[in-house]
Amino acid sequence: MSNGSKIILLVEDNPDDEELTRRALKKNNILNELVVARDGVEALDYLFGTGGHAGRDLEVMPTLVLLDLKLPKVEGLEVLRRMRDNPRTRAIPVVVLTSSKEEQDLARSYSIGINSYIRKPVDFEQFMEAVRQLGLYWLVLNEPPPAALTAR
Hints:
By secondary structure, the chain is α/β, with parallel strands linked by helices. It has a single domain, classed as Rossmann fold, CATH 3.40.50. 42% of the residues lie in helices and 14% in strands. The protein is built from six helices and five strands. It has a five-stranded parallel β-sheet, sandwiched between helices. Strand 4, helix 4 (103-112) and strand 5 (116-119) form a beta-alpha-beta unit. Helix 1 crosses helix 5. It is globular and about 40 Å long.
C-alpha cells in the first residue's frame, strides 16, 4: 500500500497525536513520505512555498492533507479556506482529523470544501483502523485530480 511519490501533509499541533498517526501509518504499511506542519502558518508556508519553505519545489504537492482544526497561529478552517481559494491547492483532498465534537466545525468544514471529516477515536485500535482505511482509499483507490487542475 505504499508509494514513495505520494506525500501526506499532516497538520497537527499535538505531539501525541502526531506520534499516534505515525505509528498507525507505519503499522498499516503506509510508507509514504509524511510532512508535518505543527501550526496553520507552517502548513500554509509548505503549501505555498513561503516563509520557512520559501524556494520549495511547488511542482511536488501533497497527495493528501490530514488537517486538525484546533491549531495555533492560523486555525484549520482558515488553512482549508486558503487552500480552496488557490488554484494550485484547490483539488488536493483534505481530510479533517480532529477531536472536535462541535457540529458547527463539521458544517463549516464541509461548506468550505473538505473531502472527509473524521473525529479522532480515543481508542488506539479504532484509530489504527481509521488510518488504514484512509490510506487505502485516498492513497491507493482514489484517482487524483489531473495535473491540469493543479497547474498554475
